[in-house]
Automatic annotation (TrEMBL):
UniProt protein name: Multicopper oxidase CueO
Binding partners and assembly: Monomer.
Organism of this sequence: Spongiactinospora gelatinilytica
Reaction(s) catalysed by this chain's protein: 4 Cu(+) + O2 + 4 H(+) = 4 Cu(2+) + 2 H2O
InterPro entries: Cu-oxidase-like_N, Cu-oxidase_2nd, Cu-oxidase_C, Cu-oxidase_fam, Cu_oxidase_Cu_BS, Cupredoxin, TAT_signal
EC number in record: 1.16.3.4
Domain Plastocyanin-like: 82-190, 241-313, 362-476
EC category: oxidoreductase
Keyword Metal-binding: yes
């Protein structure tokens, strides 16, 4: 009896964890803005620093054509080891908890055929990608179970760290939480001259959180409960480094969290790039604020350390990972004082307002942008191709201690002009596609819509919010 009940709960948890429909509605409202607190449950014991941080596998093309590299990836359920000794059912791109890393080049077209082997719809959004509408992974363009879809990426943008993740409407938060995420790194021949760390010293690190039950199951609950920090899919791992400079491509792969990252002893995080590529100049940071979906390209110099030394990377909520210095190494890499200049944008001809707001007055809270829930049949902003626009992003949620939001625009990288009339934050510099907007605050961004036409979305990148409606649609017209 007791066991059967236990099994029942376990099965139900697995269903929830993997996005089944049973009871899902009850678990949806996220975070401190939600109606449910954490429920009592048995959690896995997660030891710190007991596993090495893995590198996601690198995707290999199945065909190299004169005009494009062709890849195939299966979206499928998998069982992976996250906590040592436990197998966790996840949703995966290609079988791993962090999908294969695409390493592509500026100017080289890539075609990816994704087969959906799941029992539910999914899709693939290339976050930060400058891609035609049909390949963007619009929330309504889903791949039904048993079907496939071909995504065509021109890779005309400059080198940068993108990522790809599920964006199927209403299910994106739980699908990404369950593992539908991976890196897409655009390498740019124009970057070679800077002499930055490269090859094995250029390392992507996806940082995210999780709540893991005693049998290894990923539990999808309110974000505040996700207390286990993962780096490339393993809890608080160690990573062996040489005493030299590294380039770390940091991604906040959570669906709903801010990280404030710091290295032990205030070792600087030298930020060289953000969402859309290299910065005009490196920024030495003691603390790096990075919200869901954002990337920060940083150089860390371990040359002052000797073998045997350890350097922790902390978030305010706990330790993320530990760098173990294991050897000395020659280092010919450098961080030049001047990196990639940002071209001027034309004068803006259109100004728009985007307001995040939760309606707490209805029994079922409503997650709104400009007072409306997402409706795929509605175009919220019609944009002229070629136009340069200023968008004022405002977070109106100041009640109940305030609710955080993040803003993500598909298709184009933007610049942050100012925040409440003050200069942008250090982490706003460069080309951005995602920014954190605190309660009551505003940010002005400037963006130019270049060659592509069609439907795209912009939304809160706390996917627990966007999946409930905090998303809107733009259409670019000739
Ligand atoms: Cu939000």
């Amino acid at each position: 009896m007791h066991n059967r009940l236990g099994n029942h709960l376990l099965n139900r948890r697995n269903l929830l964890a993997l996005g089944g429909l049973t009871g899902a509605a009850a678990l949806l409202p996220p975070g401190r803005d939600g109606r449910h607190g954490p429920r009592p449950r048995r959690l896995a014991h997660v030891p710190a620093f007991s596993v090495e941080m893995p590198l996601p596998p690198v995707a290999r093309p199945v065909q190299v054509r004169p005009d494009a590299d062709v890849y195939q990836v299966r979206i499928k359920p998998a069982r992976v080891e996250i906590v040592p000794g436990l197998l966790t059912p996840v949703l995966s791109f290609g079988g791993g908890f962090v999908g294969p890393t695409f390493q592509v080049r500026t100017g080289r077209r890539v075609i990816v055929k994704y087969h959906n082997d799941l029992d539910r719809a999914a899709n693939v959004h290339l976050h930060g990608g400058h891609v035609p509408s049909v390949s963007d992974g619009h929330p309504m363009d889903v791949i039904d179970p048993g079907r496939f879809r071909v995504y065509d990426y021109p890779n005309t943008q400059q080198g940068t760290t993108l990522w790809y993740h599920d964006h199927s409407h209403h299910t994106e938060a739980r699908n990404v939480y369950a593992g539908l995420h991976g890196f897409y790194v655009i390498e740019d021949p124009a970057e070679a001259k800077y002499g930055l760390p490269r090859g094995r010293y250029d390392v992507p690190i996806m940082i995210r959180d999780a709540l893991i039950g005693q049998d290894g199951e990923l539990i999808y609950d309110v974000p505040d409960t996700r207390t286990t920090l993962l780096a490339n899919g393993r809890p608080q791992p160690y990573f062996r480094v040489a005493a030299r400079k590294y380039r770390f491509r940091l991604l906040n792969g959570t669906t709903h969290r801010l990280f404030r990252l710091r290295l032990e002893g205030d070792l600087p995080l030298i930020q060289i790039g953000s969402d859309g590529g290299l910065l005009p100049a490196p920024q030495r940071m003691r603390e790096l604020l990075i919200s869901s979906g954002e990337r920060a390209d940083v150089v860390v110099d371990f040359s002052r350390f000797k073998p045997g030394d350890q350097v922790m990377m902390h978030d305010t909520s706990g330790t993320v990972l530990r760098f173990d210095v294991v050897r000395r190494a020659r280092d010919h890499s450098r961080v030049p004082d001047v990196l990639r200049p940002l071209p001027d944008l034309p004068e803006a001809t259109v100004t728009r307002d985007v307001v995040f707001n939760l309606d707490l007055t209805t029994p079922k809270w409503r997650y709104l942008m400009n007072e409306q829930e997402f409706d795929p049949a509605r175009v919220d902003f019609q944009v002229r191709r070629g136009a340069t626009e200023i968008w004022r992003i405002h977070n109106a949620d100041v009640e109940r201690g305030g609710i955080n939001h993040t803003f993500h625009l598909h298709l184009e990288q933007f610049r942050v002009l100012d925040r409440d009339g003050e200069p942008p934050w250090p982490t706003d510099l460069g080309r951005k596609d995602t920014i954190y907007v605190p309660p009551g605050a505003s940010a002005r961004i400037k963006v130019r819509f270049t060659e592509h036409l069609g439907r795209y979305v912009y939304h809160c990148h706390f996917l627990d919010h966007s999946s409930l409606g905090m998303m809107a649609q733009l259409q670019i017209v000739p």
